[in-house]
Each structure stands twice: as structure tokens, then as C-alpha cells.
Amino acid sequence: MAATLEQAARALSDAKNVVAVTGAGVSEESGIPTFRGDHGIWVKYPIEEFGTIDAYLNDANRVWAFWCELSELVKDCRPNPAHYALAELEGIDRMETVITQNVDNLHQEAGSTSVIEYHGNARHLVCLQCRKRAPFDLDNRTKLAPKCVECDGLLKPDVVMFGETIPNYALFEASARAQKCDVMIVVGTSAQVFPAAELPFAAKERGAFIIECNREPTDFTRLITDAFLEGPAGETLPELVTLVKAELAI
Ligand code: OAD
Q1: What's the gap in Å between 188 CA and the centre of ligand 1?
Q2: Residue with the nearest Cα to atom 18 of ligand 1?
Q3: What is the pLDDT of residues 99-126, one digit of tens each?
Q4: Over the stretch 193-239, which tens digit does the pLDDT of each residue have?
Q5: Which part of the chain has CATH 3.40.50.1220?
Q6: What is the Å distance from ligand 1's center to 32 Cα?
Q7: Tens of pLDDT along 44-63?
């Protein structure tokens, strides 16, 4: 473990272009449940009933209530040391961009300024008819799924549901960044959901050094990870940053 952490710190110190890919695990220590695993969101709320665009179109009010409940839970959550560590890497010129699958805004709140939101952001709503966006005002939420004030179309949380495509900008920008980086830090993602899970493979194919922070091994660990930092990212990432700063004498 110690050797692995040191290898990772050295790779980061020597790197010219670092990108992070994050998933639900990076926000777990902020109190937000992950999607999979024993206490995962999709265990309590099956994907077919709550996670797909078809589910929303079939019973928008039921899925809307689920998103209101989730947003209520996330509302008071704050960034944890893992988010701050990634922001600090940007501050010392060791992070170009964070590509996140999370919709909780916590990387931005921690101070990361370059964040690609691969699966959208739950603080906004989008109209399924005219594509106009509106803020998701939790304090004034309606009991039923809301309608667009412009065109009366159905609004939905501006997050990518299963069956929808990744927003164009996020898809292409993330792919370009993944292919350009020489070190990628993959944090708290189970490697189960594509196309996000392709990004570390694309980076590896172009020769990037892959650092993975996770509580448990994933398909990445078995296939492409160069340095596996096992444990809660809120502990491993700050340790890594401390070592990088020591390497760089800052
Ligand atoms: P998952 O719930 O699938 O995986 C979370 C990962 O984080 C697992 O590998 C855990 O072992 C790890 N983990 C948990 N706590 C951790 C911690 N404190 N530190 C480090 N690692 C930790 O979440 P994602 O991979 O993000 O998409 O899921 C990907 C997508 O599936 C989500 O964006 C969402 C979901 O369906 C959509 O809704 C479109």
C-alpha cells in the first residue's frame, strides 16, 4: 500500500496532464448513498421503476417524488476531504479537469473549477419538449411532476436517465480529455455504467498511468489500474496530495 501510494504520488508529480473520473463513491463520505452495493439507491428503488426515461414517461409523478426525496437528502450534504483533495490538485497545477458521473455539485462546491458533468446536474430541470432549463427549487417543489412555464411540456431533473444519451459537450469533451491525459485518477466508481466506464480504458490505451481510489477492487483494478489505493477516498486522496506536495517541495 505504501509503495503504491508513493508510485502514484511520483506519477502525479511528473505528470503534464491529469484528469479525474469520479463516481458516487467520492460523495459517500458526504452522506450520499452510492447506487450499487447493499445499501445502494438502486437496491431500494429498482432502476426499471425509477432510473429510466421510460419510467419517467410512464409515471412521471412517482419518479418525480423519488427525485424530490433524493434531492432533499443531498441538499445539506457538503464536500468531504476527497472533493477538497481533487480541488487542491487543481490548485497546485496537477489537475486539468474532473469528469464526474455525480449530479450533486460537490466538486464545484469544493473549489474545482473545471468539472465536466457527464450525467447532468440535479439542481436543474429540463423541459422534455423545448429543452429549456429551470432551477430545481426544492423549497417550492410541486407534488406532481412540474410543467414548463414556456411551453407546458413535462419537466424532468436535468440528469441522464437510463435510455437517454450523454449530453454532447460532456461526451466529446470528456473523451478528448481522457485521450490527452498522462495520468488519470479514477475515484469511487464501480466501472459498471457505460460510456463513462470507457474513459479510463481510453486513457490507458493512450498510455496514461491509472490511479484508482476505491473501497474495493473493480474491473478497472483487474484490467488497467497501475496504482490501486484501497480505502475511503476521503482518506487516500488527502494522503496522496500530501505526498505529491512533498515530491514537488511545495
Ligand atoms: P456505484 O454505486 O455503481 O459505485 C460506487 C463505487 O464507489 C463502488 O465501486 C464502491 O466500492 C465505491 N465506494 C464507495 N464508497 C467509497 C469511498 N468512500 N471511497 C472510495 N470508493 C468508494 O456508483 P457509480 O459508479 O458512480 O448513473 O455509478 C455510475 C452511474 O450509475 C451513476 O452515475 C448513475 C448510476 O446509475 C445514472 O443515474 C445515469
Answers
A1: 5
A2: 232
A3: 999 999 999 999 999 999 999 999 999 9
A4: 999 999 999 999 999 999 999 999 999 999 999 999 999 999 999 99
A5: 1-30+78-119+165-250
A6: 10
A7: 999 999 999 999 999 999 99
What CATH fold (topology level) applies to the domain 1-30+78-119+165-250?
Rossmann fold (3.40.50)
CA atoms within 13 A on the CB side of 157: 32
User: Given this structure, which CATH class describes domain 33-76+121-159?
Assistant: alpha beta
Atom of ligand 1 nearest to the CA of 51: 38
CA of 200 to the centre of ligand 1 (A): 15
CA pair distance 165, 115, nearest whole angstrom: 19
Mutation probe of ligand 1 site: the residue of 101, 158, 230 with most atoms within 8 A of C-beta: 101
Q: Is 162 helix (H, G, I), strand (E, B) or coil?
A: strand
Residue with cell 450499487: 36
| Location of each CATH 3.30.1600.10 domain in the chain | 33-76+121-159
